[in-house]
Amino acid sequence: MENKKWILLTLIGGVLMIIGSAVGSIAFYEFLYNILADYVAEDLKPLISAILAIISFLAAGGGYTVIAGLILFMIKQYRLGRIIISFGTGFGLIGIIVYITYYIVNVTGIITNPTVLAYLTQIYGLFSFNSGFGFAGTILAVIGRMGLKKPKTIVKEEPVSEEESAEVIDTQIKYCPNCGNAIPLNANFCSECGADFEER
Considering just the CA atoms, what is the radius of gyration of the chain in Å? Predict the structure, then answer.
């Protein structure tokens, strides 16, 4: 099985995410909705809210969502399985980016705007990584997800019968217009009467 190592890597990642409590936070998606609400048309708000609710539900599963997606992939629901795994790992990936950004900002002082710092601190507080297992698990699951591919189907060619091969051979010949002799399709002259086809 060509996906064996990627399945194993994703499974290990999912288990580590569970151990490390790398799970999504509904509060994060509520936070996103509150930011987007000002820029979204009123009639689209229920749709955006429903989409974020589904994503937050899947993300809240963390490693469990990753393993559920992996099971779907293994029962040949390839596309759906990869999408579910992406939701499970997506929150953890965002969390890693937020953690790294928060660390860099605190160490370097690169951002001084109090509003931006308040938003970053608020977002940082919405993520739950209780140990390094969550980080490692998320990274392994993401790498595994990237490697998972739908297996290529191998088409076996049916053996050709003698009659069929004779038909193929028949279509690859032509007949001399001068004497009617059967000659190869790419022949320039007749081997029987010597008629030259290039002159015609």
Answer: 32
Q: CA–CA separation, 53 vs 33, rounded Å?
A: 10
The Cα 131–Cα 174 span in angstroms is 77
pLDDT digits (tens, 9 = 90+) for 15-74: 888 787 655 556 666 777 777 777 878 888 888 778 877 777 766 677 888 889 999 999
Q: Is 148 helix (H, G, I), strand (E, B) or coil?
A: coil
C-beta of residue 143 within 8 angstroms of C-beta of residue 33 = no
β partners of residue 110: none
Which amino acid makes up residue 74?
Answer: M
Q: At what angle do helices 45-60 and 78-108 cross, to 10 degrees?
A: 90
Q: How buried is 156 (Cβ within 10 angstroms: 0-12 exposed, 13-18 middle, 19+ buried)?
A: exposed
Query: Could you tell me the pTM of the whole model?
Result: 0.57
Residue type at position 135: F
What average pLDDT does the segment 139-157 reach? Answer: 80
Q: What are the backbone angles phi and psi of residue 194, rounded to the nearest 5°?
A: 80, 10
pLDDT of residue 193 exceeding 60: yes
Tokens of 188: 């320039």
